Amino acid sequence: MSEVSIKVKALEGAAIPEYKTAGAAGADVCALVESPVVLNPGERALIGTGLFFAIPDGYEIQVRPRSGLAAKNGVTVLNTPGTIDSDYRGELKVILINHGKEPFTVNSGDRIAQIVAAPVTRALFSPAAELDETERGSGGFGSTGN
Q1: DSSP designation for 100
Q2: Helices (DSSP H) in 3-79: which residue ranges?
C-alpha cells in the first residue's frame, strides 16, 4: 500500500478523516453542521465537513458513499465519486440525498462519506478523422451487449 501526505486544515469541531481498519481504502468524513439537517425522502442537501485540503499535484481525493449509510437508511452521496482537485482549497462539502422512505437527520460528528486519495492520469486528447475498428464497434451503448 502506498501513501501520500495530505495537509488538512480543520475548523473547530471538525474531525480529521480516519481509516477505521488497517485495510480500509477510504477514510471516514464527518459532518460539521450548525444545527441538525433533516433530509426528507427524495431531498438532498450540501453538508459541510469543516475540512480543507492541500492535495499534492498529481493526486485527487475522491468522495464516495458509505455503504452502511446507504444500506441502512437509503442515504448516499449524489455525485459519486466526487472529485477534489489538487488546486481546490475550499471546504469539502458533501451532497447527500435521501433515497429512503423515512426522514434522515444529519448531526455534527455523523460519518457521512468516505474519501480516497488517488493518483491522477491526464489524457492527451488529439482530434482524429477516423478511429480504429473493434469487434464491438458502436453497438451496445450502455452495455457490452450481453
Answers
A1: S
A2: 67-73
